Amino acid sequence: MSAPAPALPAAVLRVQAGQPLLVETFAAWREAARDLLVWGVPPEAITWSSPQAGGDLFSSAPAAAETAPPAFTVSVPTKNPPHVPRSLMEMLQSAACCRVPDRWAFLYRVMWRWQQGEHDVQSPADEDGARLNAMVKAVRREEHDMHAYIRFRERPVDAGAPRFVAWYEPRHDVLPQVAQHFVSRMGKVSWMIATPEASVLWDGHTLHNAGPLVDKAEDLDDSGEALWLTYYRSIFNPARLNTAVMQQHITSDRWKNLPEGKIVPHMISEAAMGARKIGQAQAVGQRKGTTIPIAPADAQPERQQPTKLDECRRCELWQFATQAVPGEGPQHAPIMFVGEQPGDQEDLAGHAFIGPAGKLLDQVCDAAGVDRDTIYVTNAVKHFKWEPRGKRRLHKTPAQREVEACHYWLDKELAQVNPTVIVALGATALKSVLRTANVTLKNSLGKPMKVDGRWVVTTYHPSYVLRVPSEDAKQEAFSTMVAGLKLAHELLNRPIDAPAPE
Ligand code: URA
């Protein structure tokens, strides 16, 4: 007796009935495409339809729903499930985000040809391959642009509402992957990205998808914009202005949703009228150290078991940070460096002083002839405090109450490591180590103090050395740091009851 014929999958049934296949997501398309391939349904027999049909330069065919497919019948599966290499599947997934009216039909044609053994279909030398590659490129470019040009605006604190809100008009359907990027970038602070087609809300724990929430950018709260414009003016460097490149990189549809779009034309004309030289002197001088970008996926450490520090709620900063950053170094190190708080890269990586300030600290240790690996390195505050400036997170000095809340952790580290000498890096560290706000860095530099049976040496914070405008002043600040570290090293052999060296 022969086995009963397998039941027809829903997608095949619809095709046989001459009905269009409505597809909204890549996952739905992939499932339908797999069934259709197994049952040998050729591309020309299928009418794909999608809720967002539109048209642009990648379109090579009319929207599939416009043409009536030929009749097609099948009673048994004719093919094995397709083996699609991961590289092709990734391309298909990317291309599925490209807003062209026939995207699902096109992707199916590619899969169909692949299954027929036409593996050139992935190559840019093939007509379909060229179109596939162009769609992937357009989508990647759009993801990049959305990372780069989105601008969050801070909203007044309001129970239940997101803290930061951004409006963006993407050219392709890249919101889901861009949202994931910001989930890993912005810690536990809540935010929303609204687009004309959809919106996403991150409440600090979970990502929620919603339909369009606002009709236009003006509906979003504008507070915080004035601050951003001030910042933008301060980093704008007319001496390096190349308007042609600027306009090529940021097209007019991008500028209209960038707050700085309103002030850029004015700044360009100022530059052309001779502000170029002055601008160079001012803006270059004010530049801070270069931020070395690090991909969150590369930097995120795996934390299987959260430490107690991770669970700290002694102040509000935990909400905005990716994670708490503990001190690191030998458990009984003779010298302890105390910095201010983790920076952007430290927050992502979970390790203190690994970014530009950390690199400078390495140079100071080298110049002083001290091995950094023998030093315990920590911060007065263990969570990164920041404020958004466009897509960047800018360091914000912790408040005294936040420093005080974090004494709890510094005390634990001091009790555990029991260093002979503490080196306070900058004013925040100094205030934390001395437990008072009534102390200045200037008056303490180079003057060792005794606190709770330990020597305390004060020096500059490495970020200050990176920021300081003139080369001479930078050298001087660097030498002060080196002298501070040498002094700390000398104090290791000086009894605490001996007078402090002059
Ligand atoms: N600045 C600090 O004070 N600490 C770090 O860990 C990094 C930058």
Explained architecture:
With 502 residues, the chain is an alpha/beta fold. It folds into 4 domains: 133 residues, no CATH class; 70 residues, no CATH class; 56 residues, no CATH class; 183 residues, Uracil-DNA glycosylase-like domain (Uracil-DNA Glycosylase, subunit E). The chain contains 18 helices and 14 strands. Strands 3-4-5-6-7 form a 5-stranded mixed sheet, with helices on one face. A 5-stranded mixed sheet has the order 9-8-12-14-13, sandwiched between helices. Strand 4, helix 6 and strand 5 form a beta-alpha-beta unit. Helix 3 packs across helix 5, helix 13 packs across helix 18 and helix 14 crosses helix 15. The longest helix is centred in the N-terminal third of the chain and has 23 residues. The N and C termini lie far apart (104 Å). About 5% of the residues have low confidence. Bound molecules: uracil. Uracil binds next to loops.
